[in-house]
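Sorry to interrupt, but I need a hand with the structure work. Could you write out one complete protein record for me, on any chain you like? Could you add the entry underneath, on a fresh line?
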Amino acid sequence: MPRTPGIRRYIFNMLTVVSLLMMVATVGLWVDSFWYRPSIGYVTEADHIYNVSIDGAGVIVFSFADLTPIDPRFVPPQGWLVDHDYVGFDPNHEKFSYYGRFDFRWDSLDFLEARFSGLTLPLWFLALIFAVLPTIWLFKWNKRRKLGPNACPSCGYDLTGNETGLCPECGVTIESSDIEATGSS
């Protein structure tokens, strides 16, 4: 059964655009994190804090659980916490967490009878992940650009003179406007 690459190509292109925007945002946060330390968190009724912050070169996702034994002055009220501290530019400033190999880290410890769990992901790693789809798109675009006007967009077979609307090599349905039916000369 012939398959049409239209919807798959559209979905792939949309995912590529979203991935490219996420990569640009990640690189922007990476640069911004040398001047500012943005943080957003939420405090629940049960004295749990869930937080995401960016520090130095990493995204830190952590939680504090069982905060009741801690002095109430140090426990924020229930609700959202948003912070954006200015630290000035210093590429060697003290980072929030001690980073592990390649800046990846998982922490789980007891702190004043409260439970702390945290995961640190380096921003370079997130930017690298978000760069995968745009890189694949560039390779595919370059391949399509080199194929020529009468080539099948799926396999590259030369469709000059094809009037059936199907690629004989891979079976993909081809739009008649995509083929220049010049015939063989």
In short: The two ends are 31 Å apart (CA to CA).
